[in-house]
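Chain and backbone:
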Amino acid sequence: MMLVIPGVLKADEVQAVMRELEGGAYEDGRVSAGLIAREIKNNLQIRRDAEATKKCGPLMLEALRRNGTFYSAALPHRIHGPLFNRYDVGMTYGLHVDNAIMGEPNPVRTDVSATLFLSAPDTYDGGELVIQENVGDKRIKLPPGSMVVYSSTSAHRVEPVTRGTRLAAIFWIQSMVRDEPKREILYDLSEVLGALRGRVAAGELSALTAVYHNLLRIWAET
Protein backbone atom coordinates (compact mmCIF):
# COMPACT_ATOMS: atom_id res chain seq x y z
CA MET A 1 0.00 0.00 0.00
CA MET A 2 1.22 3.46 -0.91
CA LEU A 3 -0.38 6.41 0.87
CA VAL A 4 0.22 10.16 0.74
CA ILE A 5 -0.34 11.94 4.07
CA PRO A 6 -0.51 15.75 3.83
CA GLY A 7 0.54 18.15 6.57
CA VAL A 8 2.44 15.79 8.84
CA LEU A 9 4.66 18.74 9.80
CA LYS A 10 3.17 22.17 10.42
CA ALA A 11 4.52 25.12 8.42
CA ASP A 12 6.49 26.54 11.34
CA GLU A 13 7.97 23.11 12.05
CA VAL A 14 9.12 22.79 8.43
CA GLN A 15 10.78 26.20 8.68
CA ALA A 16 12.53 25.26 11.93
CA VAL A 17 13.85 22.01 10.44
CA MET A 18 15.02 23.74 7.26
CA ARG A 19 16.96 26.32 9.28
CA GLU A 20 18.81 23.54 11.09
CA LEU A 21 19.54 21.63 7.89
CA GLU A 22 20.96 24.68 6.12
CA GLY A 23 23.99 24.66 8.41
CA GLY A 24 24.02 20.95 9.13
CA ALA A 25 27.05 18.66 9.04
CA TYR A 26 26.61 16.59 5.89
CA GLU A 27 28.43 13.43 4.84
CA ASP A 28 28.43 11.15 1.81
CA GLY A 29 25.12 9.28 1.74
CA ARG A 30 26.86 6.05 0.79
CA VAL A 31 28.01 5.54 4.38
CA SER A 32 24.53 4.23 5.25
CA ALA A 33 24.07 2.16 2.07
CA GLY A 34 24.56 -1.55 1.56
CA LEU A 35 27.33 -2.87 -0.68
CA ILE A 36 25.20 -2.91 -3.84
CA ALA A 37 23.31 0.32 -3.11
CA ARG A 38 26.59 2.24 -2.77
CA GLU A 39 27.08 1.86 -6.51
CA ILE A 40 23.86 3.70 -7.33
CA LYS A 41 23.50 6.14 -4.41
CA ASN A 42 24.73 9.70 -4.88
CA ASN A 43 23.45 12.09 -2.22
CA LEU A 44 24.36 13.71 1.08
CA GLN A 45 22.96 13.11 4.55
CA ILE A 46 23.18 14.78 7.94
CA ARG A 47 25.44 12.85 10.31
CA ARG A 48 23.51 10.97 12.98
CA ASP A 49 25.58 12.64 15.71
CA ALA A 50 25.11 16.14 14.27
CA GLU A 51 23.29 18.87 16.22
CA ALA A 52 20.67 19.15 13.47
CA THR A 53 19.76 15.49 13.94
CA LYS A 54 19.58 15.85 17.72
CA LYS A 55 17.36 18.92 17.48
CA CYS A 56 15.09 17.89 14.63
CA GLY A 57 14.77 14.15 15.25
CA PRO A 58 12.48 14.39 18.31
CA LEU A 59 10.31 17.01 16.58
CA MET A 60 9.82 14.71 13.58
CA LEU A 61 9.01 11.66 15.68
CA GLU A 62 6.48 13.63 17.71
CA ALA A 63 4.82 14.70 14.44
CA LEU A 64 4.46 11.03 13.48
CA ARG A 65 3.05 10.11 16.89
CA ARG A 66 0.28 12.71 16.68
CA ASN A 67 -0.76 11.78 13.12
CA GLY A 68 -3.63 9.32 13.20
CA THR A 69 -3.42 8.47 9.51
CA PHE A 70 0.24 7.49 9.80
CA TYR A 71 -0.52 5.34 12.82
CA SER A 72 -3.45 3.60 11.10
CA ALA A 73 -1.44 2.90 7.95
CA ALA A 74 1.87 1.83 9.50
CA LEU A 75 0.80 0.49 12.92
CA PRO A 76 4.31 1.33 14.16
CA HIS A 77 6.05 -0.82 16.73
CA ARG A 78 9.51 0.72 16.28
CA ILE A 79 10.80 3.54 14.06
CA HIS A 80 14.30 3.92 12.65
CA GLY A 81 15.10 7.51 11.70
CA PRO A 82 14.72 10.18 10.73
CA LEU A 83 17.61 10.27 8.30
CA PHE A 84 17.86 13.70 6.67
CA ASN A 85 19.10 13.57 3.09
CA ARG A 86 20.04 16.18 0.51
CA TYR A 87 20.19 16.02 -3.28
CA ASP A 88 22.01 18.81 -5.11
CA VAL A 89 22.18 19.18 -8.90
CA GLY A 90 23.24 15.92 -10.52
CA MET A 91 22.56 13.77 -7.46
CA THR A 92 20.29 10.73 -7.67
CA TYR A 93 19.57 7.32 -6.14
CA GLY A 94 19.04 4.45 -8.54
CA LEU A 95 16.42 1.74 -8.35
CA HIS A 96 16.70 -0.26 -5.13
CA VAL A 97 14.84 -1.98 -2.30
CA ASP A 98 15.56 -0.88 1.27
CA ASN A 99 17.59 -3.18 3.49
CA ALA A 100 15.43 -5.63 5.47
CA ILE A 101 17.17 -4.82 8.77
CA MET A 102 18.43 -1.37 9.80
CA GLY A 103 19.86 0.30 12.89
CA GLU A 104 22.37 -0.41 15.60
CA PRO A 105 22.50 -1.43 18.41
CA ASN A 106 18.73 -2.11 18.29
CA PRO A 107 17.94 -3.33 14.77
CA VAL A 108 14.57 -2.67 13.17
CA ARG A 109 12.87 -4.89 10.60
CA THR A 110 11.80 -2.59 7.77
CA ASP A 111 8.15 -3.25 6.93
CA VAL A 112 7.15 0.29 5.96
CA SER A 113 9.26 3.09 4.47
CA ALA A 114 8.34 6.78 4.60
CA THR A 115 9.65 9.94 2.96
CA LEU A 116 8.69 13.33 4.40
CA PHE A 117 9.36 16.13 1.91
CA LEU A 118 10.90 19.37 3.22
CA SER A 119 11.82 21.45 0.14
CA ALA A 120 9.08 23.28 -1.72
CA PRO A 121 8.49 21.60 -5.13
CA ASP A 122 9.02 24.86 -7.04
CA THR A 123 12.53 25.29 -5.61
CA TYR A 124 14.00 22.30 -7.43
CA ASP A 125 13.54 20.34 -10.66
CA GLY A 126 13.72 16.56 -10.85
CA GLY A 127 14.13 14.70 -7.58
CA GLU A 128 10.85 12.81 -7.81
CA LEU A 129 10.54 9.69 -5.68
CA VAL A 130 9.48 6.96 -8.10
CA ILE A 131 7.87 3.89 -6.54
CA GLN A 132 7.27 0.74 -8.59
CA GLU A 133 3.81 -0.77 -8.19
CA ASN A 134 1.92 -3.47 -10.06
CA VAL A 135 -0.22 -0.83 -11.77
CA GLY A 136 2.84 1.16 -12.86
CA ASP A 137 5.36 3.64 -11.51
CA LYS A 138 4.14 6.32 -9.09
CA ARG A 139 6.05 9.61 -9.24
CA ILE A 140 5.91 11.49 -5.95
CA LYS A 141 6.86 15.12 -5.32
CA LEU A 142 5.02 16.62 -2.36
CA PRO A 143 4.63 19.99 -0.60
CA PRO A 144 6.80 20.66 2.45
CA GLY A 145 5.64 18.71 5.49
CA SER A 146 3.77 16.06 3.52
CA MET A 147 4.74 12.39 3.58
CA VAL A 148 4.40 9.26 1.49
CA VAL A 149 4.42 5.83 3.15
CA TYR A 150 4.88 2.62 1.19
CA SER A 151 5.92 -0.99 1.62
CA SER A 152 9.64 -1.44 2.20
CA THR A 153 9.51 -4.33 -0.28
CA SER A 154 8.75 -1.87 -3.11
CA ALA A 155 11.55 -1.01 -5.52
CA HIS A 156 12.00 2.76 -5.76
CA ARG A 157 14.42 5.45 -6.94
CA VAL A 158 15.03 9.20 -6.72
CA GLU A 159 15.28 10.96 -10.07
CA PRO A 160 18.31 13.19 -10.72
CA VAL A 161 17.97 16.76 -9.48
CA THR A 162 18.52 19.21 -12.33
CA ARG A 163 17.98 22.51 -10.46
CA GLY A 164 18.08 23.53 -6.83
CA THR A 165 18.27 21.30 -3.77
CA ARG A 166 15.92 18.59 -2.53
CA LEU A 167 15.78 18.01 1.23
CA ALA A 168 13.74 15.25 2.84
CA ALA A 169 13.55 13.05 5.93
CA ILE A 170 13.40 9.26 5.67
CA PHE A 171 11.96 6.79 8.18
CA TRP A 172 11.73 3.01 8.35
CA ILE A 173 9.07 1.37 10.46
CA GLN A 174 8.79 -2.06 12.01
CA SER A 175 5.05 -2.56 12.09
CA MET A 176 3.08 -4.44 14.71
CA VAL A 177 1.52 -6.21 11.71
CA ARG A 178 4.26 -7.62 9.51
CA ASP A 179 2.06 -8.74 6.61
CA GLU A 180 1.16 -5.94 4.18
CA PRO A 181 -2.28 -7.26 3.07
CA LYS A 182 -3.31 -7.53 6.72
CA ARG A 183 -2.16 -3.94 7.36
CA GLU A 184 -4.24 -2.83 4.38
CA ILE A 185 -7.34 -4.57 5.74
CA LEU A 186 -6.89 -2.90 9.12
CA TYR A 187 -6.30 0.50 7.52
CA ASP A 188 -9.41 0.19 5.34
CA LEU A 189 -11.44 -0.88 8.34
CA SER A 190 -10.19 2.06 10.40
CA GLU A 191 -11.18 4.43 7.57
CA VAL A 192 -14.67 2.94 7.47
CA LEU A 193 -14.97 3.34 11.23
CA GLY A 194 -13.99 6.99 10.95
CA ALA A 195 -16.52 7.61 8.17
CA LEU A 196 -19.35 5.94 10.10
CA ARG A 197 -18.72 7.77 13.38
CA GLY A 198 -21.78 9.91 14.08
CA ARG A 199 -23.76 8.34 11.23
CA VAL A 200 -24.71 4.95 12.69
CA ALA A 201 -25.98 3.76 16.05
CA ALA A 202 -23.40 3.52 18.81
CA GLY A 203 -24.02 -0.20 19.24
CA GLU A 204 -23.33 -0.93 15.57
CA LEU A 205 -20.16 1.16 15.63
CA SER A 206 -19.04 -0.60 18.79
CA ALA A 207 -19.53 -4.00 17.15
CA LEU A 208 -17.46 -2.99 14.13
CA THR A 209 -14.77 -1.53 16.39
CA ALA A 210 -14.61 -4.87 18.18
CA VAL A 211 -13.96 -6.60 14.84
CA TYR A 212 -11.05 -4.24 14.20
CA HIS A 213 -9.46 -4.83 17.60
CA ASN A 214 -9.97 -8.58 17.46
CA LEU A 215 -8.22 -8.75 14.09
CA LEU A 216 -5.41 -6.57 15.44
CA ARG A 217 -5.17 -8.84 18.47
CA ILE A 218 -4.75 -11.89 16.20
CA TRP A 219 -2.24 -10.32 13.81
CA ALA A 220 -0.16 -7.95 15.94
CA GLU A 221 3.36 -8.62 17.25
CA THR A 222 4.60 -6.49 20.12
Observations:
- Residues 132 and 155 are 6 Å apart (CA to CA).
- The chain is about 30% helix and 30% strand.
- The mean pLDDT is 95.
- Residues 180-219 form a domain with the DNA Excision Repair, Uvrb; Chain A fold (CATH 4.10.860).
